[in-house]
Amino acid sequence: MNPIPWTYVRAELGREPLAAMGLGAGLFGAISILGTCWAVPRLPEGVLTVLSLSLAVEGLPALVLVNTLLAVWFVAYFVGAVVVLRAIPAPRAEGGLDILLVKPVPPAVFVWSRILPALGLSAAVGLALSVTQVIGLWGFLGADLSIASVLGIGLTTVAIAIAQLGALTALTARTTELAGALGVAIAVFMAPMTPTSVFIYRPDLFPAEGVGRTLFVMPTNLIVHSGVITWAWPVVMIVGVGLAALGLAWAARRVVVG
Amino acid sequence: MSAAVSNVVSNPLLSPTLWWLELGRRLHERKTKGLAFLYLGALLAAPTLLEKPPPHLLAAVQSWFGGDDPFGLFMYVWTDLAMNKLAVLTGVAMGAGVLVEERADRSLILFMTKPVTPAGLYVLRVGSAVLATAGLYLITQLIGLALFSAQIDGFKPLAFSISGLVHVWAPIFATCLSALCAVAIGRQLGAALVSVLVLFSLVGGAFLGVYNPAWADVLAFNPFTQSVAGVTHLQSQSFGTLTGPVVGLIVLNLTLLAIGARLARRIEP
Amino acid sequence: MTPILSIEGLSKHYGPVIALDNVTFSVNPGEIFGFMGHNGAGKTTALRVLLGLTPPTSGRVTVLGLDPTQDALGVRSQVGFLPASYALPREMTARSFLCYIGAMFSMPRDQAEARAEALITQVGLTSFADRRLGGLSTGMAQKVGFAQALVNNPKLLLLDEPTSGLDPLGRHDLLESLRELAETQGTTTMFSSHILSDVQTLCRRVAILHRGRLVAFGEAEALKAEHGAKDMDTLYLTLARREQR
Fold first, then answer.
1. Which residues of A touch B29 (CB under 8 A)?
2. C106: which chain B residues are within 8 Å (Cβ-Cβ)?
3. Where exactly are the structural domains of chain C?
4. Cα–Cα distance between B126 and B182 in angstroms, integer?
5. What is the average per-residue pLDDT within A88-117?
6. Which chains touch C (3 or more CB pairs under 8 A)?
7. Are C65 and B3 an interchain contact pair (Cβ–Cβ within 8 Å)?
8. Residues A100-127, mean pLDDT to the nearest whole number
9. In angstroms, what separates the C-alpha of C71 from chain B's closest C-alpha?
10. How far is C182 from chain B (nearest CA, A)?
11. What is the DSSP letter of C231?
C-alpha cells in the first residue's frame, strides 16, 4: 500500500478559506436563531396552537426550539455543502479534475483530504450555532428543557448534517455539471424533511400513537426524545461521522471514472 | 486623427432569432429538464397531501384567509409548500450560474468576443432564464388548472389562475437575485449559497404577516410576501389588491436586472 | 498601404507586472501575419486589447480604422477570433452553436442557418454537425472553434495558438484553410503562435515578442538574413538570448 502523502494532505486541508466561510455562515445562522427566539413567542396564541398541533410538540420552548433547529441544520449543512461541491464536482465541471486524479495519490486520500474540511467546517459552525441556540433559549430553559438537552439536540442535528454531507459527496462524485450537483445538494437536504411535510398535512398516514408516530418527523422526533438525546448525542455523532465515512468511501470508488 | 466610426448599427439583443435560440438553449439544459420533473412532482403530490387535512389546520387557514371552504387550505399548501420552495430551487438553478459558470468552463470567451457587451450578454442570459422560469411555472399552473378542477372539490379556477399570475413573479425574483449574486460574488457556488440562505429566509417569512397582522407592515418589504398576495387576499382578489404587489415585483426585478448588468461589466472572460 | 491593424507604443500593466511594454507594429490588408513569442510573452494580452476586452495602460491601437477602446463592438463585428484556451458549450451541437453565433451578429434565422451549414461543410464537420459538442475530440472541437471565428465572414482573423493540440493532419488543414481564405477572400490573419515552424510555413512578415517587448518586426526572410539565422527557430533563439543578456 502506498504511504499517505502528508504534504499533499496538508495542502488540501488548507485550500479553502474556511475561517471566512464559517464566520459568514455562522453570523447569518446566529442572527436567524436569535431572531427566531424573539419572533416565535410573539406570534398570536392561535398560531402557536396550530404550530404545536401540526408539529406534535408541546409548549412554547419546544416550538421555539423546532424553529431554531432548522436554522442550525440548514446553515451547518449548506456551508459544508459548498466546500463539498467545490472539492469534486466544480473541478470536474471545469475540466480540471483529471489532472489531479492521475497523480500518485490514492482516491480515498484525495476524497478525504478534500472533504474533511467540509465536515470540520460544518461541525464547527454547527457547534457554534448550537451554543447560540442555548443562549437564545436561555429564558425558556427549565425542567422541560435543560442546557444539556438543547445542546444535545443541536449537536444531533449537526451529526445528521455531517452524514448528509457524506451522502452528498458520494452522489456528486461523478457529476459533470455544477448546477446538477447543486440540485442534488438541495435534494439531500430536503429529503429528511419530506416526512415532516407529509405529517403536517396528512397526520392520518402516520401511526395514531406510540414511538412510530413522530419517529421520522424531523426535528420533532429529536424534541420528543430529548431525554434520550441528552446523553445519547455522542453516539449519534459517531454514527453520523461513520455514515459520512461510508459516503466518502463510496465516493472514493466512484471518483475515478474509468 | 480620430478613429473611424463603426458602420455596425444593429444590436443583436434586438434580434428575435438570438432570443429564440438562447431560449431553446436554456430549455435543452439538463437543469431545466430536472426542474420540469420537480414541478410535475408537485402537481401529482398536492392533491394527495390535501386529501384529508387535519381539522386544526383547516380551521386555522380559514381564520387567516377567511371563507369557510377548504380551497383556502389548498391554495396555502400549493403556494407555500410547493411553489415557494420550487421558486427558490428554480431561481438558484437558473440564476446562480449566469456568466460565472461559463467563465469557469472557459466557454464565455467565445461569446464575449462577439459584438455584445458583457451587460448585454447578462441581460440575454438572465432574460432567457426568466422566460424559462416563467414558462415552467405557468405551464405547471395550466396543467394544475385542468388537473385540480377534476380532482379537488370546490376548486376555484379563476382564483387559482389569478393567484398564479401574481406568484409567478416569485421565481422570477429568485432568478434575478441569484443572477445578481453570481456577478457580484463571481463564483457560482458562493452565489448559490448566498441565494439559498437569503431566499429560504424570505420564503420562511412569506406568510408571517398573516400569522401576526401586527407585523404585516414591517414584513411587506419581503418580495415573497408580495408574491403570495393572491392567497392572502383570496376572499378579496381584485385588480386593486393585486396590482400593487405585481407592479412592485416587476420594478424590483428590473432593478435587480439593471444592477446585475452593471456589475457584469467587471466579468472578464 | 493603410494598415488594417496598427499598434503604436502599446503598454499594458497588471499592477507591477508589465505584460506589454511600448509595442509598435502594424498588419497589412490581406496578409497572414506571424505574431510570435514564448508562452507569457504578451501575445494574448495584445489580442485582448485589440478586441477591446481590456484597455491599454498607454499607447494607441486601431483595428479596421476603429479604436477598440471606444468601439469594441464595431471591431468585434468585423473580426473573427479564436482564443488559445476555450471550451465549447457542451450541450449544444456544432450546428446550433454556429447558428447561435450567427444570431449574435444579428443574422436573421435563415441566414444564420445557411451560414452554419456552409461552415460545417467548409471545415469538414458534416458527420459531426449534430453531435453534442461535449463529446467531440480535440481536433473536431478546434474545427468548430475555427468555424465560429468565420461566422461573420471577417475581414480580419485573430488566431491565438490555433494549431496547438492539433495532430499533423489537422494542422496542415488549418494552415491550408488560412491560405485559401487569404487568396480567395483577401482575409487578413494575425497568426499568434509559439510553434515557429507554422509561422515559417505561413507568414511572410512577423512580429516577435519577448517578455512583453517587441524584439523584431518585419519580413521574416530579411530578419533571418540580418541575424544570420537559417530558420525561424534559430532567429527566435538568437533574439531571445540577446534579450536575456
1. 179
2. 10-12, 14-15, 18, 115
3. 1-78+156-245, 87-153
4. 11
5. 88
6. B
7. yes
8. 91
9. 7
10. 22
11. S
pLDDT (0 to 100) of residue B3: 41
| pLDDT tens digit sequence for A129-153 | 999 999 999 988 877 788 999 999 9
Does residue B8 carry a pLDDT above 70?
Answer: no
All structural domains of chain A with their residue ranges: 3-254
pLDDT score, position A1: 55
Of A103, A115, A113, the C-alpha closest to A256 is: A103
Q: How far apart are CA A170 and CA A175, in angstroms?
A: 10
Whether C14 has its CB under 8 Å from any CB of chain B: the answer is no
Q: Which mean pLDDT values do the consecutive 10-residue runs of chain C (245 residues) have?
A: 92 94 95 91 94 95 95 95 93 95 94 96 92 91 95 95 87 92 94 88 92 92 89 87 78
pLDDT of residue B4: 44
Query: Residue B49 to residues A18, B150, C202: CA-CA distances in angstroms?
Result: 41, 16, 71
Is B25 an interface residue toward C (CB < 8 Å)?
A: yes
Sign, CA dihedral B203-B207-B211-B216, equals positive
Domain C1-78+156-245 CATH superfamily: P-loop containing nucleotide triphosphate hydrolases (3.40.50.300)
| B267 phi-psi bin (left φ>0, alpha ψ -120 to 50, beta other) | beta
The residues spanned by each domain of chain B are 19-264
Q: At what angle do helices B84-95 and B30-49 cross, to 10 degrees?
A: 180
Peptide bond before residue A219 is cis, with ω within 30 degrees of 0: yes
Q: What is the ipTM of this complex?
A: 0.92
For residues A14 and A116, the answer to whether their CB atoms sit within 8 Å is: no
d(CA C170, CA B204) in angstroms, rounded, equals 57
How is residue A57 written as a grid cell?
Answer: 410538540
